[in-house]
Amino acid sequence: MAPRPLQPSHQFIGGNLATNAGGPSCLKYGVTRHWVLGVRAVLGTGKEIRTGSLSHKDVAGYDLTGLLVGSEGTLGILTEATLRLAPIPEARGTVVATFPSLEDAALAVQQVRQAGITPEAMEFMDGATLSAVDDAFSLGLQNVQALLLVGLSGHRLAVAQETQDVYRLLEKGSLRVDLGLEKNEIERLWLARRSAFGSLARRAGNLWVEDISVPLSSLATMVRKIDLIAQKHDLLVATLGHAGDGNLHPQFSLRGEPDEEDRIKEAIEEIVSLAVSLGGTLTGEHGVGQEKRDLLPSALDQGAYKTMEEIKKVFDPLGIMNPGKVL
């Protein structure tokens, strides 16, 4: 069992707060909002407010802390945050499995979660991603079509039992499953996953990174149809993501072809529409910003969207807080 540090999506607290960042470990430990007890913020009106308290439980009034965390700077500037802490897990374990396709890996993820096991992280990469990663790290993954990394953490005995349980579940549909790899091998695989974006960019030169999330019951369908949509628009796509919570990151390679960006935009609209139709959402952790601002109304209840517009006006009546983003 090899130790592996928790890795938030942003290495700075401000970035985590602004986007309500998730990342690999949020499957077990939750996203940033779950760890914020309160904030101090300056609103678009110039008024400074403090939210939350030091209490473990606090349901006094509306959840303004939850509203501000993840608002991407559109409601106010966060100047201070009080965070909840947790002890470092006593033990960690990793199970590594390869599959004929990412769809098969997605089905295996569903089986593990249905068995009542909540790993710290379940990360997968498709063949295109693994090929790029192998160029950078020489891990012998060039011909692997799908890789699943399952990270477990907690009490030593619980981790030992869960590691065995995951191994038995993944044995059924995988090409190969390992739980006894050397510490340095496991660390290299996790490093490869964390470096997947950079490895793909290194190969492609330029990437269009996407972020959607679907229910686990729809994960296999989603990864299969992402490939079909890419083929339809003659695009190169590599898909990876936080498989355990259905958060996918299709990466489109930009080859400098005529009308390529238009084709990518059309593909993304189809992918977002499909994700929403499957009960998912157009962003799991990267936020809305400018790129998905026009797609946001299609992903939300119209009454909820109008309410968000009204909230924006209350917090930022002059429209000066990160203007032109989200709404």
Shape: globular
Give me the CATH fold name of the largest domain: Alpha-Beta Plaits
Instruction: Describe the main β-sheet briefly.
Output: 8 strands, antiparallel
Strand percentage:
15-25%
Q: How many distinct folded domains?
A: 3
Which value, in Å, is the CA radius of gyration?
21 Å
Number of strands: 11
Mean pLDDT: 92
Note down, in words, how this protein is organized.
By secondary structure, the protein is an alpha+beta fold. The protein folds into three domains: 13-83, Uridine Diphospho-n-acetylenolpyruvylglucosamine Reductase, domain 3; 91-194, Alpha-Beta Plaits (2-Layer Sandwich), CATH 3.30.70.3450; 199-299, Alpha-Beta Plaits, CATH 3.30.70. The protein is built from twelve helices and eleven strands. The protein is globular, with a radius of gyration of 21 Å. The N and C termini lie far apart (46 Å). Mean pLDDT is 92; it is low at 1-6.
Question: Which features characterize this protein?
Answer:
Uridine Diphospho-n-acetylenolpyruvylglucosamine Reductase, domain 3, 39% helix, 12 helices, eight-stranded antiparallel β-sheet, Alpha-Beta Plaits, 327 residues, three-stranded antiparallel β-sheet, alpha+beta, 11 strands
